[in-house]
Structure formats: C-alpha cells, structure tokens
Amino acid sequence: MVNKNLKELLGAIDVLDSRGVLPTEITGIHYHSQMVQPGNLFVAIPGELVDGHKYIPDAIKNGASVVVCSKFTEDNIPQIKVENPRRALAMLSSKFFLSPSKKFPLVGITATNGKTSTSFMLNHILEEKGMKTGLIGTVKVKYPGYEKASILTTPQSYDLQEHFYHMDQEGIDACIMEVSSSAQELDRVVDCDFDLVSFHNLSREHIDQHGSFENYYKQKKKLITQAKEDSFVLLNQDEPLIAKLEEETQGKVLHLSYQDKADIYLKNLDLSTGFGSYTYVLNKEIKLKNKTLEPFEMDIQLSSSGYSSVMNSLVAISLALLLGIEKDIIKKGIEDFTGVERRFEMIQTSPFKIIDDHFANSRNIEITMETLMKMDYKSLVMVYAIRGNRGVHLNEEVSQTMSKFLKKAKLKKFIASLSQDCVSQKDWVHDEERQVFLKVMEEEKIQVELMDHLEDALNRGLEFVEDGDLLLLAGCQGMDHAGFLLTKNQNPRLNQEELTQRVQDRSC
C-alpha cells in the first residue's frame, strides 16, 4: 500500500506555483522519462549535463499525468513548479512510500575511506545475531528476496525510498547504508530517518566533483549536522574537522579514537601478522532505549587484514553495541568476518603473502603502507596500476605518497602498469598522468619498471617474489582484474585453492 493522493503528497514539499488541472491521484513517481508508466508523476531534474525538462515530451508519450519542474514549459501537461526538483523528488518519494525508513533502525555511515568495509562488518555481526538486514552501498543493494550490484554508492532518492519500502515489507530488523558526499550534495538522502550515524575519517578526495575540499567537507558533514535529536552520532576524535562537529549536531555524540583515550578506543594493537588484534574499550556508560551499556573491555582478533580493518572494526563494533547487540555475538561476528574484496585483502598467505588493495587515494595508501611497515616479511614486490583518467594532480599526489613509504620499505622490485589489457578507453592512463608518475619516481630515486599490460606486470612481479616475501597488488580500475589473471596463469608457486576462492567472481 502506497499513498497515491496527489494533494497529500504535495503537502510534503514547498510548491511555488502550478499550471493546469492537477489529477486527484497518481499511479507512481519517476525521474527517468523512459521508465514512466501511465498516470505517473514525472520529476524533471535539471543537471549539469542533462536537463530533465527536455524529456517532458517523452514522459508525456509514456503516459505521465503531471510534472514537477523548476520552470514551466510549453508542454501540454499539468505542471507543479518547485525551487529544487531533486529535493522535491526525495520528499515526494518518501511520502509516496509512507516514510518507510521510520519503520526500522537505519544506520548511516560516511567517511572518505572504509564505508564499504564498515557496513559489511556491521552487516555480518547483525546476521550473526540472526537479524534480517538491508544493505545499501558501493558493492550492492541487498535485503531478503533482493540482491543486485550497485550503480551508485547511494541510490537516487526515489530508488532509495522504494528499497526502504520493500525492506519494510520483508520485515527487516535494520538497514545499513553508505552515505556518499554526492548523495548529500544531490539531496538523495533527504527524508531518510537515521537512528545511528558515523563519520570516521576524512581526506582530500572527490575534489574535482565538489569543486573544493571545503565543499566536499560541507557535504560530508551533513549526515552529522542534520542528525535528529534522539540519534547516536559516532565521531572520530583523532580528526579535528570531524571532532568539532559535536558542536553542530543535535544527536547524542560518542567520540572514538585510534590513538588516545576516548569514549571508545583501542589498546594493545598488534599487526605483525597483517591481521590486527587489539583490546576494544568502552570507556563510559551509555543508555539505550531498553538497556544500559556499562564500561567494558573486549579482546578482538580480526580475520580481515590491515590497519584499515582495525579502524573500520572499531566503528562496526560500536554501531552494533548501539543497536543493542550482545558482546559475545559482536565478538564472534567481527572475528569471523574475512573482509571485503580489494580492501587490503589477503588472497594468499604462503609460501609468500599476496595482498590486494585498491589504493584509491593518499589516505588509503598511507594506511596500507603503514600496515605493511608493521608486518613480518622478507622483501616487498609491488605491482601498481596507475589510475587513469583521474588527472595529473591526483596521480602526482598519490605518487608522492607512495614514494615516501617505498623509500622506507624493504622494496625488492617495483613494477607499474597502464593496464591497457583490462580497462576501457575511458580509464586509460593519459600521457600527462604517466609522465607525472615517472617524474615523481625519478625525483625520489625509486626505480620502476613500467609495462603496458597488467598481465605482463603480474608475471614480471612473480619472477622476483620468493618464499617469505610479500607481493602487493595495488591500484584502482585495471588492478581489479589481478586476482583473475593470477589464477588464470596457474603458477605452481601460487596457492591456487586460496586464489580461486577469493577471485571466483572476478573476470577480465
């Protein structure tokens, strides 16, 4: 059952003006003219590249009965004028589906790095409890009876509210959602009723998209600054720009720290094997709706590798506690979790280690390399896929970050690839991107062998790796296919069972 009464739906938005005789009811809502069904309300969204107003005639052909727009057109259809059609779409969709996100606990997770891993960790804990969950993020959208690969980290608002509606129909116990900066800037999460929100790291990423770091931060923090009064807000005390948001939110703030004492923190960290072990500390009493959490300590031994897993697990455990999950279930759930594809993924442990990481930005690289510095291995062989079509500035920045660590690492061989055998032309490395990478490596006196094809680069790396060494597969886009290429070659020095298990769903 949904709300089809147009007058009631319009009560959710600020209408500036209207033209024509409005229908009493609509059959549905859509923002894509080709998806419109007879009797639908069509929302014409103006965008940087495409203006939805141009597609009003197509929506009419497909049976639209009314249009929401930011400017009236000459098209023969009743029209409703609003200031911001994107925001109107979100609010109308929520009202149409009867505010479904109010009907179950909704967790919103934002960060520059780690949203996906944190959400998967929390989902694993909740499933360990036997809960029916919804999961929305970069990798997939899933809930009982539905699972599909994601197109956007955070779906368009209508699609998001429709997912919430079906989740409620399926009787889920909680939904975990990654909230991207784009989603917040483009009003996709307006009218989402978050019960718990977290913001646990921030670095310079998506600058081209948002215009500046200042605007990126402005969009990221909306999840916190717009939190409702009775929600819990989890903030990273170690990041000044995140910690200061305590002053800008109505929610109940809890601070966590990876370095010092806070409401939530860790101690006794050991990363020598690559798999973190530490003591989780809750340092204050927390009153939930149905129980009180007393201060406690809990030893954790992770099965997902890397320092980033330690950081993300601290958030996931804390969110699970705030959802009322028992400590023994949390401990089992987090310790059984083996990781997310390409997030410091240990894909082989012997006779030499192979770690696969997406190396997305400078902060991600710093965390990965800092973890390697704490691990026990003989020498490092690294195969890096240069990130194509992301600009000279980003490639220069990540190259400088890499070089800082490579000069200190036990580096035996460094191979870079343009991945022309594995990426589409839109992700090819431009000459300027290749040149700035090589320029930084030359300035820092780091020897690098550059190869056009990823498969050749991987085979070259295997020529140098020996028992006890560590082979790091690093980089976005092309490197996504590395695991498949390694299994394809059936090198006898590789543990094919481990590799095949990890990469069975990948293809080149």
Summarize the structure.
The chain is an alpha/beta fold.
Strand tally is: 24
Q: What is the percentage of strand-forming residues? A: 15-25%
Mean pLDDT: 92
Helix fraction bin: 25-40%
Total DSSP helices: 18
Low-confidence stretches: none
Oligomeric form: single chain
Order of strands in the sheet with most strands: 9-8-7-10-6-11-12-13-14-15-18
Using the alpha-carbon principal axes, give the shape: globular
Structural class: alpha/beta
Question: Whole-Å distance between the termini?
Answer: 43 Å
Q: Compute the gyration radius: what is it?
A: 25 Å
Largest sheet: 11 strands, mixed
Keywords:
alpha/beta; 508 residues; 33% helix; eleven-stranded mixed sheet; six-stranded mixed sheet
Structure report:
The chain has 508 residues and is of the alpha/beta class. It contains 18 helices and 24 strands. The strands form 4 sheets. Strands 9-8-7-10-6-11-12-13-14-15-18 form an 11-stranded mixed beta sheet, sandwiched between helices. Helix 3 packs parallel to helix 5 and helix 17 packs antiparallel against helix 18 (496-503). The chain is globular, with a radius of gyration of 25 Å. The relative contact order is 0.08. The mean pLDDT is 92.
